[in-house]
Queue: 4 jobs
Job 1
Amino acid sequence: MAKFLYVYHGSGKMPTEEAERQAAMDAWNGWYGKLGAAVVDGGNPVGMSKTVLPGGKVENNGGSNPTAGYTIIEAKDIDDAVDKAKDCPILKDPGFSVEIAPIIEMG
């Protein structure tokens, strides 16, 4: 089995109400439960990033496609990883997407 990185992209507000937070956590836990042992690292959400450009210029706006979080999974190939991502709860918000990249083992 190969490892794949899911990078969640988009920007939105975190739920402020306890019921909304719990519903979001339940959705993620349900999806992770469905993925089972394929989840290598459940990851985390991330805060606003900075981007260092050539010449040392720094952008403080999260870039053109802000990262919202990540997960690492195992799958038989990238198509399998794509299929597993289709039920990701973040995709319920039209402003978000999941980028999938194979992790290349070095050495």
Note: Residues 2-102 form a domain with the Alpha-Beta Plaits fold (CATH 3.30.70.1060).
Job 2
Amino acid sequence: MSTSTPITADDRRRLWHPRGTLCAVCRQPTRGFGWFDPHRSKRPRPSVWFCSMPCQSFWSRLARERFAMVDLTKEERAAITATMKRVALLMDEIGWATPLGDLTEAQVRALIEEAVEGFREAMSDIARAQTPEVPF
């Protein structure tokens, strides 16, 4: 006969939270804010996770407007434009005449990191700007 210890609230929370998942809006690590498709009754229901309430609210608004997004949204297009400016500054340092095949691994890595970080920051800023401030 084995004795088992009761499951605590921390244990349940640890099992529930999606460790290692990135925010669906800005790609930062999630912090427990989630969204489940309310129209699907069969399990598992599609779900996405977020780093903050502004990102969650932003996604929920987009989901209400049109969940089956195929094309880029106007917010994503704005984020890409903001990212292009950051990547262009880095390309100025590298040199615009440099062929892509001649870039070093460090230069390619820097370009990719600048593009990803720029897009993430722009999407986060857009979500924050479109979501009312939470009073607490």
Note: The chain has a mean pLDDT of 79.
Job 3
Amino acid sequence: MRDGRLRHVTGTVRLEPVDERNLEPLLSVAVAEAEPDDVMPPVDAPAGWSHARREAFRDYYRTGMAGLDGPTHTAMYAVLVGGEVLGMIRMTRRAEPGTVETGIWLGRSARGQGVGAAALRELLDLAAAAGMHTVVAETTRDNAGAVSVLRRCGAKLIEDGDAVRAEISLDAIPPAL
């Protein structure tokens, strides 16, 4: 959203590892188009995008800069379209061999335009290239956008009350080239 108007997102979706170069643009999108609890773990700080929350955002995203082999076993990627940062997608190693968990958030103006599904497909390629066999995600039944993206990317959905666990077998789907 720019100047209070929704924009139509066009162009190829690509992923770029989160680094110091794209961290501030990522924070800008989060502040303008997302709630803190949607883009980072909860922190004990004043509500909204306070200075303390902005610093916590930076600290949290820096933890993923070391990648899957780093201390948090997490690789974070800025989601870009036309060179503009629109959100983030990540993968984190799980205890099960060859398995990573994914999570994504997009700024409000990029939602519902196919960006999430395209970003997830790109992440599936990166996971396969890293030797992974399975990508999992957890969401809730009322998160229709996430459920739709997961379904469109071939996930097997397992519902348990309001919780939804998604499993994507990388051995069963060919990576997009």
Note: The beta strands are 13-17, 74-81, 84-93, 99-106, 134-140, 156-160, 163-169.
Job 4
Amino acid sequence: MMVIEILIDWFPYLFSGIVLTLGLVASALIIGVGLGLPMALGQVYGSLPVRTGISIYVWFFRGLPVLVLLFLFYFGIFPALGFDFPAFYVGAVVLGLWGAAYQSQVFRGAIQSISEGQMTAARSLGMSRFQAIRSVILPQAMRIALPGWSNQYPEILTESSVCYAIGVAELLTRSSQIVSQTYVTLPIYLACAVIFILLSYVGTTGIHMLEKKIEIPGFGPGGS
């Protein structure tokens, strides 16, 4: 009974950690799409220097653990540039930059799956290259990319817990603080784990429902 009372008493504090965790994930996904999609377009349609620069970016961010990136930006790059960002913003930016490297490859594969003939047909109708990409290629590519992109949500959700290392008061950090105050270890960390599982399940279920709603017949599982 005492454990249940502790969980009830501390739940508002834990809930604020859930809100911060979801804020990290949402911010990172927005940054990831905002950077990943242009990078994908650059890799498919860009010049050699553009493709090379993007490839270096992808290689760098996919080659380092998130924890190393957090320390690099929080204690190194941002201070060296004269920026003093709060830990939450650094965590969101780093997760977003890291996620963009992976998302760009998902988008690139989806764009390349569209037949080149569609670009040719759009150009023959008088569309510019930009108009063809915006109106013909991207609407199809984004729908094809959704199943692969959906994996980013649980990945960023789990990686968000690493932000405790720079002082972000997310779910894991607050769970640890509750443990240090109550000396109740297993139930608190178990509750933390259950919350992460529930957040992952609810989020991925919602994305998969959207995926089913907008999927293109003939592409991917369930296509006909």
Note: The CA atoms of residues 18 and 157 lie 11 Å apart.
